[in-house]
């Protein structure tokens, strides 16, 4: 059994900012903080470099640690009979301003079931945000949507690896916030129903 590689966590926007040597410290800095921006690394030098804005073409820099989302974006995915679907909704002031949903196009990705839809929803959402020139806070109910993008979870298959790579290209225009599935959150339920509807699933 191999030894586990050390991890370091850099927090650019959170309750506390800096480089931490444990996930517990990082979690305290970002848990429940709206617009948290953080990433994990295997070396201290990489973590400090990213924190100082020295790596990645990131719109956030050392002069601006704040992250103000112009839209809250709710994302979700669904799956039935070998097909997956995705949906997102851009919300501001309690109203949906932009939304989209569709059946997934990658039949191989369907092996990940509804997670394939969750991934697609997040990707389409950040692409839309980029087109609009806005920053968004992505609300999701599957932890991997954030953790694959931040590096907290290792992307092990071609689909999660492609997702992590694409999200890195859009780094700086999004943050994450997890919501509990089927907990009565109005807009989380809204995109859940939209994703199901394109597959013909009645809630």
List keywords for this structure.
203 residues; alpha/beta; Ribonuclease HI, Chain A; Nucleotidyltransferase, domain 5; five-stranded mixed sheet; three-stranded antiparallel sheet; 26% strand; globular; RNaseH_sf; hydrolase; EC 3.1.26.4; Ribosomal_bL9/RNase_H1_N; metal-binding
End-to-end distance: 46 Å
What's the total number of strands? 8
Structural class: alpha/beta
Our count of domains comes out at 2
Rg (CA only): 17 Å
Please give the largest β-sheet: 5 strands, mixed
Shape: globular
Q: What value does the average pLDDT take?
A: 83
Tell me the strand percentage band.
25-35%
Low-confidence stretches: 55-65
Question: Helix and strand succession?
Answer: EEHEHEEEHEHHEH
Q: Order of strands in the sheet with the most strands?
A: 6-5-4-7-8
Assign the CATH architecture of the largest domain. Answer: 2-Layer Sandwich
CATH topology of the largest domain: Nucleotidyltransferase, domain 5
By CATH, the superfamily of the largest domain comes out as Ribonuclease H-like superfamily/Ribonuclease H
Helix content: 25-40%
Q: What CATH first level of the largest domain would be assigned?
A: Alpha Beta
- Total number of helices: 6
Short description:
The chain is of the alpha/beta class.
Q: What does the model show?
A:
There is one protein chain. The protein is α/β, with parallel strands linked by helices. It has two domains: 8-52, 3-Layer(aba) Sandwich (Ribonuclease HI, Chain A); 71-199, Ribonuclease H-like superfamily/Ribonuclease H (Nucleotidyltransferase, domain 5), CATH 3.30.420. Helices cover 33% and strands 26% of the residues. The chain has helices at residues 23-30, 44-51, 114-132, 144-150, 158-169, 186-198; strands at 8-13, 18-20, 37-41, 71-80, 83-92, 95-103, 136-140, 174-178. A five-stranded mixed β-sheet has the order 6-5-4-7-8. A hairpin with a 2-residue loop joins strand 5 (83-92) and strand 6 (95-103). The longest helix has 19 residues, at 114-132. The model is unreliable at 55-65 (pLDDT under 50).
């Amino acid at each position: 059994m191999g030894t586990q590689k050390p991890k370091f966590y850099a927090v650019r926007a959170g309750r506390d900012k800096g480089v931490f040597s444990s996930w517990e410290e990082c979690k305290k800095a970002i848990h429940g903080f709206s617009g948290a921006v953080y990433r994990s690394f295997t070396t201290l030098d990489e973590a400090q470099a990213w924190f100082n804005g020295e790596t990645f073409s990131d719109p956030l820099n050392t002069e601006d640690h704040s992250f103000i989302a112009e839209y809250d974006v709710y994302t979700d995915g669904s799956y039935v009979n070998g097909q997956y679907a995705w949906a997102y909704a851009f919300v501001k002031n309690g109203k949906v301003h932009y939304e989209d949903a569709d059946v997934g196009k990658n039949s191989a990705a369907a092996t990940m079931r509804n997670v394939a839809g969750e991934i697609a929803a997040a990707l389409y959402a950040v692409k839309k945000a980029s087109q609009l020139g806005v920053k968004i806070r992505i609300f999701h109910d599957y932890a991997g949507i954030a953790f694959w993008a931040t590096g907290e979870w290792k992307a092990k298959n071609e689909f999660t690896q492609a997702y992590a790579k694409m999200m890195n290209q859009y780094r700086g225009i999004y943050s994450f916030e997890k919501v509990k599935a089927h907990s009565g959150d109005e807009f989380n339920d809204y995109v859940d129903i939209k994703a199901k509807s394109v597959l013909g699933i009645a809630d």
